[in-house]
Amino acid sequence: GPPPGKEVLRNYLPSREIGPKLVAIGSYYNGKKADVAAALSIYEEDRTNVPKCDKEDQCGWTCVVPKAPGSKETETKTIVTVGDFVKYCVNPSLQ
After folding, report:
1. How many C-beta atoms surround the C-beta of residue 66 within 10 A?
2. Phi, psi dihedral angles at 8 (to 5 degrees)
3. Residue 9 class from Cβ within 10 Å (0-12 exposed, 13-18 middle, 19+ buried)?
4. C-alpha–C-alpha distance, residues 4 and 41, integer Å
5. How would DSSP label each residue in 54-79?
6. CB 90 within 8 Å of CB 29
């Protein structure tokens, strides 16, 4: 049969096109840290900018993250690059 979805998406991690790359990285949300941390670690330093939104679209790139590991207190991080997306959005969701 066809390969599992995550296996297909993994092929898009090194993509030069931002859309497929972000979808592939986003597919790791809520994954197991042991299974995906190594696959994502190289993207923590990716300085590629995420797409910009027009103000009238009322969208943006933010993630709510704990202020400290294990803390109930949170803060909102603005996402500017692919690396920010990995560090502040995907990594904190890993279990």
Report:
1. 12
2. -65, -45
3. middle
4. 22
5. -GGGT---EEEEESSTT-S-EEEEE-
6. yes
Q: Write out pLDDT tens, residues 14-59.
A: 999 999 999 999 999 998 888 787 889 999 999 999 998 887 877 8
Four-residue CA torsion sign, 88, 95, 6, 11 = positive
Residue 81 sits at φ, ψ, to 5 deg, of: -125, 170
Which residue type, as a one-letter code, is found at position 73? E
- Side chain identity, residue 29: Y
Token duo for residue 58 = 């009322």
